[in-house]
Amino acid sequence: MTRKNIHYEAAFMDYLRSRGVPYVPVDETRRILFAGEKIKSFDLIVYAPGRRHWIVDVKGRQFPYITEDGARRYWENWVTREDLIGLREWETVFGAGFEACFVFAYLLDGPPDRWPAVRPHVFREEYYAFLVVTLAEYQEHCRPRSASWDTVSVGTATFRRIARPVEVFGISTG
Asked: Which CATH number describes the domain made up of 7-169?
């Protein structure tokens, strides 16, 4: 099972449940040994209707993210290189019927007119927006962010262009 105390993952699973979309949570507590190599776990397998199934890594972010000096940053989308490598490996393991992707689960704050242009999902009295980016698109556009944390990200303008509401991938708004 996924860690239920991670509210971003729990909110996304609630979103899927509320729309009748089947999914299987993955036990993230330990790494899987496959072909002699340990591979970083992902969060869910989502059986999106009429499409290839998703291998999902949920990335929880605040929208906007407020820095220590009070600046507001929108569209945070960093991931680790290990996330990229792990998802790529899993996509290979699962094969052609599966597509690896990141679901960015944004906990929305501030005025609603500044939120992403998607229908928010209410979970535990908080508002969330879910945007999906395929691994292939993310890898094509990411660049190094932090060498010390070994992270990458996609520039804001490009991310806004390639990130899509999960509804685009066959999950209805209910």
From this structure: 3.40.1350.10
Number of H helices, E strands in the chain: 4, 14
Identify the CA nearest to 134 among candidates 51, 22, 31.
Answer: 51
Q: Strand order in 151-153's β-sheet?
A: 79-80, 151-153, 143-146
Nearest to 2 by CA among 32, 36, 35, 45: 45
Residue spans per domain, the chain: 7-169
- Cβ-Cβ contacts under 8 Å for 147 (sequence gap 6 or more): none
CA distances from 77 to 58, 96, 131 (A): 11, 26, 10
Q: Give tens-digit pLDDT for 45-65.
A: 999 777 789 999 999 999 988
pTM of the model: 0.90
User: Among candidates 51, 46, 151, 40, which has minimal Cα distance to 89?
Assistant: 40
**DSSP three-state, residue 110:** coil
Q: Where are the alpha helices (DSSP H) in 19-171?
A: 81-94, 135-141, 156-162
